[in-house]
Amino acid sequence: MDMVVSVIAATLGAGTPLIFAALGELVAEKSGVLNLGVEGMMLVGAIVAFITMRSTGDLWLGVAVAGVAGALMALLFAFATLTLQANQVAAGLALAIFGAGVSAFIGKGFVGVTLENRADAGLSLPIDIPLLSPLLHSLHPLVYVSWLLFAGVSWFLFRSRAGLVLRAVGESPASAHAVGYPVIRIRYLATLFGGAMAGIGGAYLSLVYAPLWLEGMVAGRGWIALALVVFATWRPARVMLGAYLFGGITIVQYFAQSAGVAFATQFMSMLPYLATIVVLVVISRDVAMIRLNAPVSLGKPFHPGV
Amino acid sequence: MAARNDNPARLELRGICKSYPAVVANDGIDLRVMPGEIHAVLGENGAGKSTLMKIIYGVVKPDAGEILWHGARIDVASPAHARELGIGMVFQHFSLFETLTVAENVALVLPGNPGLDDVAARIGGVSERYGLTVDPRALVHSLSIGERQRVEIIRCLLQDLQLLIMDEPTSVLTPQAATRLFETLRQVAGEGCSVLYISHKLDEIKALCHRATVLRAAKVTGTCEPQRETAASMARLMIGRDLPKCNHPEAAGDGEERLVVNGLSLVCDDPFGTDLADIRLAVRSGEILGIAGISGNGQQELLAALSGERSTPDDDAIHVCGIAVARLGAAARRRLGLCFIPEERLGRAAIPSMSLADNALLTAHAQRMVALGMLRSDAITDFARRCIDDFDVKCAGPHAEAKSLSGGNLQKFIVGREVMQHPKVLVVSQPTWGVDVGAAVSIRQSLIELRNAGAAVLVVSEDLEELFEICDRIAVMANGRLSHAKRVTETDVEEIGVWMSGLWPDQVAGPVSAPLVESLHAT
Questions:
Q1: Is the separation of the CB atoms in A81 and A301 below 8 Å?
Q2: ipTM above 0.95, yes or no
C-alpha cells in the first residue's frame, strides 16, 4: 500500500516541473511566440531559487524569485524577437545556451550542495480515505499549485475574453491588428508569463525534487516541455497527461534500477524521454485537431504595418 | 449638390499622400462622402484603392494630407479609434479568425466584455433586420465565403455605424449573392449610413452607387455620377483609354479528346479542404473549357489532381491524350504534354528570388536547356528573352528577379513560358487574377491563340465575364462536384450563377423544377 502511494506521489512530483514549463510555453505559443529557450529559463530559475532558499530558508520566496528570473530571461527574448524582429528559433536557441552558461556561472560555488530542510507537507484531509489521504498528504504544495495553474490556464484560454484575444493574436496577428488589438504587447505578456512559469518549474527541481544544485540539472526537461506542447496539440489537458507519463516512467525506471533489473542504466534513463515522445506522436496524428488548435502564426514575426 | 457647402461631408480627404519604398500608392487624393451616400472608389489593381481605405480605417498612416470627419480635422490613430468614430470595414481578404466561432469573432470587436450568449442574441437581431442569416455557434472555417462576408458585415453593423467600407466585396460572391448584398447595402445607406464601395467592376458601380471617385496610378482622375455614365466612359477614366476586347472566333468543337477525367473522387487530406465527388469532364483539342465557381468549392483539389501534385489511386480517373496518368507525378505528366499554370504566381508558378531565366528553366527544361546533365545557359537566356519579347513582358531583362515584376507582367511571362512549350493540354487557374486590364486582355488572347493552334485548354476562374469571353463551353464547380458543361452560346451569367450555388439540373433526370430553384434562391 505504501509502495503504491509513494510511486504515485513520486510520479506526480516528477511530472510537476514539466507542467509548469509546458503550460507557460503553451500560453506563449498560443499568442504565436515560439520560445525555444525553456531549458535555459528553467536552469536560471533553478539556481536563483536554490541560492535564495539557502540564504533565507524561505521556499516561497525562492519560487517567487525564480519566477521573476525566468520572466527576465523571457524579456530578453521578447525584446530581441518582438521589438527587434529577430528570428524566434535562433533567438530561442541562443537563450537556451545563454541560460545554461549563466546558471553554471552563478552556481559555481554551490555545485553538489544540498538543502537540509524539506518540511513542507501536503493537504491533510479531515477524514481518512485509504490511498487518497496519505497520497494527498505526501504531495508537495507546489504540486497543488501546478493543478491550480492547469485550471487557471484552461479557464483563461477557453473561457475568458482575454484568452480569446490571445488566441486570436496567435491565429492571425494581422487580423487582430486590423480589429485594433495591441499584438506586440499581448505577445510580450504571454512570453513573460511563459518565462515565469519556466523559472518556477526550474525552482521545483532544485528546491523540491532534487533538492540540490548541479550544473545542467534540468537535464533536457525544458526540451521535453517544448515537445509536450506540440504533441499535446496545444491543449492543456494533454500537457498534463504527457507530463505525468514522463514522470511515471522516470519513477518506474528508478524503481527498476534499484530493484536490480539487469539493463544498461543509460537506456533506462533514456526511457522517459523516448516513451513520452512516442506516445504523444501517436496520439497527435489527428491532422484536423492540429489544424484547429495550432496557432497559425507560431514563430512568425509580425510587423504592425506602417 | 446645392447644399454641399453648408452641410459638412461625413468624410472628407484632402491631399492624402502615401509612399512605400518602391511605389507611390496615393498621390494627393481628395474624396468627399456625404451622409447616406453610396460612394464608389473605382480603379484598377494597384491604383491605390486599398491603401486609401486602410488610411481611412487607421491601419496605415498617411505621409501627408488631412482627414475631416463631420467637418472636423482628425487623425485616425488605429482601427479601434476608427470603430469608435463609427467607421467599419469589410476587408477583401477577410479579417476573421478561422478556428473561432462566429460569436467569438464578433465578440472580439465589441467594446466592453459581453458574454457570448449576449453576443449571439445581438447577432440574431441584426441578421433578422438585414436578412443576413448565419449561425453564431458555427466555426468560421466551416462557413462558405459568402457567409463569412455576412459575419464581417454583421460585425460592423453591431456598432453605431456611420461609414461602412467595403473592399471589393463581390469578387468572392455569386451574382445572386451580390444582388442580395446590394439590397443590404441600400438598406444600410437608407438608414443614413455612408458606404464607401471599392471596386473595379463598372456594371456593379452603375447599379449601386450614387457617386464615384476614379483613381488611376495613385491619383484621382475624376469624379462622376455612375448612373449618368456608360461603362465605356468610366473605363476611360479608369484605364485612360478604351477597354480592349479579345478576338474570339467560333470553335469547330470536333477535335480529339485530350484531357479526360472519368469519375474522379478524392478525399482531401486537409480538414479545411473540399472532397471531390465523381468529377467527369473532357476537353477536346481546339477548345477552351471553363470551370466557374466560387473558390474553395474543390478547385484547388481538382487542380492538384490534374497537375499531378497529388496522385490518385484510381488509375483510370485521369487520361491525357489517351494515356492513364492518375498515378503519375507532375513531371511525368508534363512529359506527356500537360502544362499547368497555378493560381499563385509567386511561390508556386515562379520562384520570387530567382531570375526570369531560371524560372523559365523550372518548367521548360525539356526545351533543349539541359545537355548531358549540364545547364545550357545560352539556351535558357534565349528562351526567356523570346518569351519576354513575344508576350510583351515589361521587365529589366531575362535576369530580372521574378518578384521585381508587376503581377500582370509576371503572369504574362508565366503564361508565355507554358505556351512556348506547345502543350497538348494546358490547365490554367485564375489566369488574370489581380492583373491590370491591359495584361488581362493579352493573356486571354494568348490562351485563345493556343486553342486555335489545336491545344486543349482548361480554365478555372472565378471571373464569369472572363469565362464568357474566352471559353467555348462552361461547367460549374460547387461543393466538390462538377456540373456538366454547356456551350457558352447556349447559357448566360444568370444560369451559371444559379449553378454556382450547386443547383444544376441533373442531366439524366431532367431539369430541377422551377419552384425549387426559386425557393432556394429566396433563402
A1: yes
A2: no
